[in-house]
Amino acid sequence: MTPIDLSRARADTPGVRNVLHFNNAGAALMPRPVLDAVRDYVAREGELGGYETAKENWDRVEHAYDALARLLGAAREEIAVVENATRAWDMLFYSFKFGPDDRILTCETEYASNYLAYLQVARNTGCTVEAVPSDESGAVSVDALRERIDGRVKLIAVSHVPTNGGLVNPAAEIGAVAREAGVPFLLDACQSAGQMALDVDAIGCDMLTATSRKYLRGPRGVGFLYVRQGLIEALEPPFVDLHAAEWTGPDEYRIRADARRFETWECNWAGKVGLAVAVDYALDWGLDAIEARVTALAGRLRGALSSIPDVTLRDLGTHRCGIVSFTVNRHDPAAIQQAMADQAINIGLSPANFTLLDMDRRGLGSVARASVHYYNSEAEVDRFAAAIESLSLAR
Ligand SMILES: Cc1ncc(COP(=O)(O)O)c(C=O)c1O
Question: Which residues have CB under 6 Å of ligand 1?
Answer without folding.
Answer: 84-86, 111, 113, 159, 162-163, 188, 190-191, 211, 223
